[in-house]
């Protein structure tokens, strides 16, 4: 059975005792607390803690489709949402073709007014965010 439960460190630690294995995506603080609980019980654990939302592309992937999805995930909402892709990992032979396809996909994305339905990458949310980005 697969279950997704939102929450923080307290909820994560409590859920570990009822699990056979744990896969966690969350903050480093929550991940460390859950890892301590899982380790104490000998439960297998996999975590993605503050890992910056990696996109992993394998050699047998549909490279143009992967590039299109990754480009949108990189710059959609000007990259300001917590699920924005921040790392791309191309495995083996996928590297060269993905690099080319991703470069082209990014060139083709529409940057502009966020109220325009064709815009993929709009403005940053505030002057403060603009300062941080610059």
Number of domains: 2
Count of DSSP E strands? Answer: 4
The description of the largest β-sheet is: 2 strands, parallel
CATH superfamily of the largest domain: Aldehyde Dehydrogenase, Chain A, domain 2
Order of SSEs, N→C?
HEHEEHEHH
Topology:
Elements: H1 9-16, E1 22-26, H2 28-41, E2 45-49, E3 54-57, H3 63-75, E4 87-90, H4 95-108, H5 127-133
Parallel strand pairs: 1-2, 3-4
Question: Would you write up a description of this structure?
Answer:
- 42% of the residues lie in helices and 13% in strands.
- It has 134 residues and is an alpha/beta fold.
- It folds into two domains: 9-49, no CATH class; 54-133, Aldehyde Dehydrogenase, Chain A, domain 2 (3-Layer(aba) Sandwich), CATH 3.40.309.10.
- The strands form two sheets. Strands 1-2 form a two-stranded parallel sheet. A two-stranded parallel sheet has the order 3-4.
- Helix 1 (9-16) runs parallel beside helix 2 and helix 3 (63-75) packs across helix 4.
- The longest helix is centred in the first third of the chain and has 14 residues, at 28-41.
- The model has no long low-confidence stretch (mean pLDDT 87).
């Amino acid at each position: 059975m697969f279950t997704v439960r939102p929450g923080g460190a307290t909820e994560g630690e409590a859920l570990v005792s009822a699990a056979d294995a744990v896969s966690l995506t969350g903050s480093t603080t929550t991940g460390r607390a859950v890892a301590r609980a899982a380790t104490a019980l000998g439960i297998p654990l996999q975590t993605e803690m503050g890992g910056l939302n990696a996109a992993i592309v394998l050699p047998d992937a549909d490279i143009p489709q992967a590039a299109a999805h990754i480009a949108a995930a990189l710059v959609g909402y000007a990259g300001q949402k917590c699920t924005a892709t921040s790392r791309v990992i191309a495995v083996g032979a996928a590297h060269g073709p993905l690099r080319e396809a991703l470069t082209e996909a990014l060139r083709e994305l529409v940057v502009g007014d966020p109220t325009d339905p064709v815009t993929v990458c709009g403005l940053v949310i505030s002057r403060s965010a603009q300062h941080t980005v610059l």
